[in-house]
């Protein structure tokens, strides 16, 4: 890596999004603030850090959890610190300066950075180089990023879903759910999804290729819905269930009474 004299290091403006206060209910733009900071285009000498320019930022549901104050250890990721901490999440970015042997300036990465123009990543262990430039870069915040990995790992590593099996997906029109459904269909499963509007249900059936879908706000008896939509000649069944979302309790009850449904909780 070329050594740049301290006096020659360029400093640029770095706009950042911070949380103003802890949130109750649905977050709004008033809960956040854009602040103008500055960043030196350098990494600490001898460190494995990388300085990146963020190109695409993702906004995911788990960020909402971090916007509420929790008692110690009651959340699986630390709460944001209002007033100073930049919101962070997955992004697609370009390396500007690197102290890491695996990354060089110009490399495109996906991983965890901040909601800011530039991020200094002290240890880029959660960054991955993008080697397939034939896809739109934004896909690395979706189907080729964490939502896609979550769907893939849940369906194939945890459930080990196979051709001919049943898969029920809740929050099926969401970022993860729609990929679970499509992967399951590609595998030859019989796939049923639930969503909270007729428009989403239509999307599941006409665009994402689900075999069937229902609006859980209209069809309140989940047991009846799953019983109606199940095909008796199908093999083992999986429920790709998003924890804390609609009909969590009912589907657990249903699974208990209608073996062999296997429930996969996605937190
Ligand atoms: N995105 C990721 O990379 C990732 C990774 C690991 C885990 N997860 C977890 O997987 C779950 C789904 O994530 P996602 O990214 O697919 O989410 P998403 O795209 O935001 O979809 C979430 C959907 O959940 C439904 N929902 C039901 N009850 C809700 C409520 N009280 N508030 C808000 N939405 C509600 C809504 O659809 P309806 O209108 O159909 O109800 C909503 O569109 C979350 O628990 C998340 O923490 C996500």
Automatic annotation (TrEMBL):
<dbReference type="Pfam" id="PF00107">
    <property type="entry name" value="ADH_zinc_N"/>
</dbReference>
<feature type="domain" description="Oxidoreductase N-terminal">
    <location>
        <begin position="15"/>
        <end position="123"/>
    </location>
</feature>
<feature type="domain" description="Alcohol dehydrogenase-like C-terminal">
    <location>
        <begin position="175"/>
        <end position="230"/>
    </location>
</feature>
<dbReference type="Pfam" id="PF16884">
    <property type="entry name" value="ADH_N_2"/>
</dbReference>
<keyword id="KW-0560">Oxidoreductase</keyword>
<dbReference type="InterPro" id="IPR041694">
    <property type="entry name" value="ADH_N_2"/>
</dbReference>
<dbReference type="InterPro" id="IPR036291">
    <property type="entry name" value="NAD(P)-bd_dom_sf"/>
</dbReference>
<protein>
    <submittedName>
        <fullName>Uncharacterized protein</fullName>
    </submittedName>
</protein>
<dbReference type="InterPro" id="IPR013149">
    <property type="entry name" value="ADH-like_C"/>
</dbReference>
<dbReference type="InterPro" id="IPR011032">
    <property type="entry name" value="GroES-like_sf"/>
</dbReference>
<dbReference type="InterPro" id="IPR045010">
    <property type="entry name" value="MDR_fam"/>
</dbReference>
<comment type="subunit">
    <text>Homodimer.</text>
</comment>
<dbReference type="GO" id="GO:0032440">
    <property type="term" value="F:2-alkenal reductase [NAD(P)H] activity"/>
</dbReference>
């Amino acid at each position: 890596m070329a050594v740049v004299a301290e006096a020659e290091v360029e400093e640029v403006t770095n706009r950042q999004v911070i949380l103003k206060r802890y949130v109750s209910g649905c977050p709004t733009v008033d809960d956040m603030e854009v602040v103008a900071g500055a960043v030196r285009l350098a990494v600490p000498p001898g460190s494995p850090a990388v300085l990146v320019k963020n190109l695409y930022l993702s906004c995911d549901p788990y960020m909402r959890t971090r916007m509420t104050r929790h008692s110690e250890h009651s959340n699986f990721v630390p709460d944001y610190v209002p007033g100073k901490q930049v919101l962070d999440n997955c992004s697609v970015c370009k390396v500007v300066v690197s102290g890491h042997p695996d990354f060089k300036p110009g490399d495109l990465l996906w991983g965890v950075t901040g909601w800011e123009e530039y991020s200094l990543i002290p240890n880029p262990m959660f960054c991955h180089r993008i080697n397939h430039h034939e896809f739109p870069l934004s896909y690395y915040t979706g189907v080729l990023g964490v939502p896609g990995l979550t769907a893939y790992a849940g369906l194939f590593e945890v459930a080990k879903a196979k051709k001919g099996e049943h898969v029920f997906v809740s929050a099926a029109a969401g970022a993860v759910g729609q990929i679970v459904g499509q992967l399951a269909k590609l595998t030859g499963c019989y796939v049923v999804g639930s969503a909270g509007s007729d428009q989403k249900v239509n999307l599941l059936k006409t665009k994402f290729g689900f075999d069937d879908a229902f609006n859980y706000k209209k069809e309140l008896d989940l047991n009846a819905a799953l019983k109606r939509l199940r095909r008796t000649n199908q093999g083992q069944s999986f429920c790709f269930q998003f924890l804390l979302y609609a009909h969590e309790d009912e589907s657990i009850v249903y699974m208990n009474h209608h073996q062999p449904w296997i429930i996969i909780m996605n937190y």
